Amino acid sequence: MKKSKLSITLVTGFIAAMALSACSNVKSSKDAVVTFTPYDSKETTVKLLTNDVYKAYNNTTSGVSKFYDKILEVLIRYEFKENDFKGGELNYQEIEKWAKNQVQEQKDKAKDNAKSNNTSYDTEWKAILESNNVEDANGLQEKFIYEKEKEVMKNWYADNDANAATLKSEFLGITKEGKATADVNNVKSAMPYHIRHILVKVDEAGDANEKFYKGTVTEAQAKLLANTVSELAKGDYNFAEVAKMYSEDGSASAGGDVGIMTNNATSGSLGMVNEFQLGLYAYDNLYDAANVADTEAAKVIKDGLGMNPGVEAALPAGVVEVPYEAFVKMGEYAAVTADKQGNKLADGSTALYPRNIVWNKYLNLHNVFVIKNAKKADYSALTSPKDEFANLASDEKFSTTLKRFNNKDYLVDEKGNVIIGVRSQYGIHFMVIEESMYDYAELEQYYDTKLPTDDGYSKETRSYVNYIESSSLDDYKKRADDVKGKITSFDSTYDYRLYTYLKDKAGKIEFKGDAADLGKRIDQYIAAQKDNNVYKQEDGLKQVWRTYTELLGVQNYNRTAEYTTKNPVTGNDSPVLTRLVPEKIADDFFELYKNNVVGNDPRYLKFNDEGEYHYYA
């Protein structure tokens, strides 16, 4: 056997002494340095590791981790095959049957591959064995058995009464009393949020800087934005129904439900795009955190989300209020590119279509905004176009008949959740927080996994599982499995819990001879992996926040940079301008279009001899 097979060599039965001694370049020895004596068993002591094998691999870079892996494998396989593991979704006989079917599927795959690749069955079967790092069908079956045993035990551990409460507490990172989880320094919690959203797709401008002030939307996109917000505001349909009608995201069929969002950033990126996920965190920090009387709880949550004082200082001080009227104008202006005499703005640039002037002013924003039942702020008395962008929404209501606005005049869903908007590279996300970390008193209940058939279940309980209404138990089970999956995967050192649990429960492991300190070294290895996991998570959150806040800084610079220019018609200096085109240009042009104005309308003074309405920026 090649040394490269060491990392996946499987223990056949549970007594094969890690199967390491089968390697051709290592001679077998009767001198056992690691043994396992099962509790409550008449079995004789089992050799897990011989002296020769230990010496051969002890000084390799991954020696300790391989020894750990194999000891864990022995413990798990013993529990299933010899101790008839109870409580899991499958027992050993069921797993063995499943594994045999998996092997047959791989053999069938080899036959199909041989036909499609014009090769032999033996060639394709050998490739499958090598990709799984095993030597024969028996080895492949044992691999499948162990992987499934481990999966079943991980799920059982997460759902077992003796462990579930502690594990869920670490997953949440905060108790219902608002205190940090006890083991918060050993593992970074997931800080789960349950989110829904609607996506209207809009591509970004190709130029890295122009994308912040010279973006464009198509006529269809402008109408979709207007229609989406209009339907949300009228309230004839709930959020899920509007998502199914208009969202261009894969979650549309589920009513915009994107499931449980966690803060995992160990790879330097998040599960959602930064604008989406960090925008929600920023919004929640500005609003929900302010309503938390317990400052210790707020600090626990902010720390878990990576929102340190430096991040908070780099974020905008408030959330942008976009007037509902802006979406109405988007719909009205969607098809207008020239007036009825064929006059176009400037050189006919699409960035100066009225809909795109409105788009860039109100919606082409990578920081979060809310939609206010208001008319746009009055600009008629302003002397400088740049002042248009200081206040977007007025205090005057746009409508008194629209249903879905709260007492702050913010657009909400049917449950009263504020609908939060943000622009990412994919388009505009309209987002709703179904369950926030700041609702920490409810989190244990919300992420309960009880099914309608379980004792203690109540359909009245507000929970992630009960979020749906279905006549199928499988639908509820999928949601419960989603919660379990998040809990068992939030911590990359999760397997170490199984090792500690089984080592104490299954029997006695003895380390002796040259390997006398191996048990201690494995414990040190586990501690180091936990420390590294915590570091990677904290560093990952720093990276994503830095990327996001730097993006907002570049956006702000490109949208607020001021300058003046010469008007080629009058020869006079322009007022102070920004790169954002004032909305007055779009409104004036639309009025000329709508009323088919000709003659001496004063707005025509801004046209040149070629009939082009100029705004130089």
Give a structural overview.
By secondary structure, the chain is of the alpha+beta class. It contains 18 helices and nine strands. The protein has a six-stranded mixed sheet with strand order 4-3-8-7-6-5, with helices on both faces. Strand 7 and strand 8 form a beta hairpin.
Question: Characteristics of this structure?
Answer:
single chain; 617 residues; alpha+beta; six-stranded mixed β-sheet; three-stranded antiparallel β-sheet; 18 helices; disordered N terminus
How would you sum up this structure in a few lines?
This protein is of the alpha+beta class and 617 residues long.
Helices and strands in order:
Layout: E1 32-38, E2 46-50, H1 51-58, H2 63-82, H3 92-117, H4 121-131, H5 137-159, H6 161-172, E3 193-201, H7 219-234, H8 239-246, E4 257-261, H9 274-287, H10 295-304, H11 309-314, E5 320-323, H12 324-333, H13 354-363, E6 369-372, E7 420-424, E8 427-435, H14 443-446, H15 473-489, H16 495-505, E9 507-511, H17 518-560, H18 583-595
Parallel strand pairs: 5-6
Antiparallel strand pairs: 1-2, 1-9, 3-4, 3-8, 6-7, 7-8
Helix pairs in contact: 2-5, 2-16, 2-17, 3-4, 3-5, 5-15, 7-8, 7-12, 12-13, 13-18
The stretches of 5 or more residues where confidence is low (pLDDT under 50) are 1-29, 607-613
Q: What number is the mean pLDDT?
A: 85
User: What coarse outline follows from CA principal-axis ratios?
Assistant: elongated
Q: What is the assembly state of the chains in this entry?
A: single chain
Overall structural class, as computed from helix and strand content, comes to alpha+beta
Helix content: 40-55%
Strand order of the largest sheet: 4-3-8-7-6-5
DSSP strand count: 9
Evaluate the radius of gyration: 32 Å
Main pleated-sheet profile? 6 strands, mixed
Task: Bin the strand percentage.
Answer: 5-15%
Order of helices and strands: EEHHHHHHEHHEHHHEHHEEEHHHEHH
Question: How widely separated are the two ends?
Answer: 72 Å
The tally of helices reads 18
What is the count of structural domains?
2
